[in-house]
Amino acid sequence: MALVEVRNLTKVYRVGRVETPAVQGVTFEVREGEFTALAGPSGSGKTTLLNLIGGLDIPTAGEVTVAGVHLNRLSLNQLADFRLWNLGFVFQTYNLIEVLTALENVEFPLLLQGVSARERRRRAQEALEQVGLGEFLHRRPQELSGGQQQRVAVARALVTRPRLVLADEPTANLDTETGLRLIHLMERLNRDLGVTFLFSTHDPKVIEAAHRVIRLRDGRIVEDTARSS
Q1: What CATH number should be reported for the domain holding residue 182?
Q2: What is residue 228's predicted lDDT score, i.e. its pLDDT?
Q3: Tens digits of per-residue pLDDT, 84-98?
Q4: Three-class secondary structure assignment of the chain
Q5: Domain count across the chain
């Protein structure tokens, strides 16, 4: 059974009488344990597609199923609960809370889940150690480099033990070397922890690191290839 099923997915943005199609009739599946890149130039529909799969946006037509749950059938409150318990998100702008330490940022989704303080602290520390930041627990975002902040964001995405991590251009604000290190870190976590990753990128070097590449153009899939082992 596929972890993600996308069927004839379409998203059209309307401003007045002007309609702009962002995703057009997209169909594909992602199986458990995959490490897949959505690739394409700016405006190809990558971010919109990730937002639809993550329940952050509502499709105009078509259907998204994640872990057997039809997202189209959920209310906004139900979508928020589903995201909290099943999905992890990594954004290109990090989205860390500036007044919180790295440890507190990673703890935050566990707080929303109602996890006890002691268990929150243990799991957040473990997640930061997994991404190589065990010595930076008490530093705030402004005291960390861009690459370190993005690793905090990865730890936060993983701490709830999600079925799926969605990463939107996670290397966009990083230099090439730091970006590749982040992708290789995500690849190791995928291999060692079995977490499914679906991320967007337009960086050729990052695309080369993906196990599977789904290429988009003008909101449509134009190529879907798996890297031979």
Answers
A1: 3.40.50.300
A2: 64
A3: 999 999 988 889 999
A4: CCCEEEEEEEEEEEECCEEEEEEEEEEEEECCCCEEEEECCCCCCHHHHHHHHCCCCCCCEEEEEECCEEHHHCCHHHHHHHHHHHEEEEECCCCCCCCCCHHHHHHHHHHHHCCCHHHHHHHHHHHHHHCCCCCCCCCCHHHCCHHHHHHHHHHHHHCCCCCEEEEECCCCCCCHHHHHHHHHHHHHHHHHHCCEEEEEECCHHHHHHCCEEEEEECCEEEEEEECCC
A5: 1
